[in-house]
Design goal:
about 0% strand; single chain; elongated; mainly alpha; about 110 residues; 4 helices; 2 domains; about 45% helix
């Protein structure tokens, strides 16, 4: 990962880099190496408003992986706006769902 960052930003880290910026980069690189080598505990939080992410559990059964947690939430208005969902008219789909839902339970 560090090599990838250095390739992308290679010329940014040359001799002309200001000392405080070079220091910030070196600190970031040190912290990243600690995380990658598991020297420090860390938590990855994925905020996936469309639920498109997949994380495989370490164990065979999802219930047995106590380090993996799922938290469902309602998207904010801003998230819906960014995804273009606030302007969607779903009334016909809602009506179709309601009609099939009531016929299946009757």
């Amino acid at each position: 990962m560090n090599l990838g960052l250095e390739k992308v930003h290679g010329y940014s880290f040359g001799d002309s880099l200001e000392d405080h910026r070079k220091s910030k980069w070196l600190d970031f690189q040190t912290r990243l190496n600690k995380l990658l080598s598991l020297d420090e505990a860390w938590t990855l939080v994925l905020d996936d408003a469309l639920a498109n992410s997949f994380i495989a559990p370490v164990t065979d059964d999802l219930k047995d992986d106590h380090q993996l947690t799922f938290e469902e939430y309602e998207r904010s208005w801003e998230q819906n706006e960014e995804l273009g969902l606030n302007d969607m008219d779903t009334s016909s789909a809602d009506a179709a769902y309601e009609s099939t839902n009531t016929t299946n339970t009757a």
